[in-house]
Amino acid sequence: GPLAGPVVTAAVILPTAIEGLADSKALSEKRREALFPVIMEQALVGIGAASVREIAQLNILQATLLAMRRAVARLPRTPTLAMVDGNQNPGLGIRTELVIKGDSKIPEISAASIVAKVIRDRLMRKLAQRHPFYGWESNVGYGAKQHRDAMKAQGVTAHHRRSFAPLRHWLEDETFVA
Q1: How far separated are the first and last CA of the chain, in Å rounded?
Q2: 23-75 tens-digit pLDDT
Q3: Residue pair 35/20 in contact by the 8 Å Cβ criterion
Q4: DSSP 8-state assignment for residue 53
Q5: Alpha helix locations (H) across the chain?
Q6: Are 81 and 12 in contact (CB under 8 A)?
């Protein structure tokens, strides 16, 4: 997972089919960016997020489930069924079906994964303007070499997920220079 930035989720109700939906990880950035305005225009969308502080307090799983609840709460209307990608019930207060690899099977989940990925990537690119050393404009907070090298040279920011095991262990290592 990313070493920096919030967790972002989306909930999507599709009144009509949208051509080309797929798991956001299977699509190019260009394709995700092309689908994003179509989804936002044609679907009902709720966005949820959990901050780096919430990730540290709750853990990444619980923070993700919190972000999911926030996304569903922000939908313009309450759905009667939520189809959730994965095997963890976020406790939405409505009938919920868990779908393993749902982002590659269910169009609504595909659309939600695209929306969440585009919004998070855009947020990280915006943060890159204030923190230019980390390469967030291209790695969007993931552990790419430029990002890891910058953490060694510059230290970590308030946007880094210090509780994420690889980063936490690295920060605890005596050889880490901030």
Answers
A1: 22
A2: 999 999 999 999 999 999 999 999 999 999 999 999 999 999 999 999 999 99
A3: yes
A4: H
A5: 29-42, 52-58, 60-73, 107-130, 136-139, 145-154, 165-172
A6: no
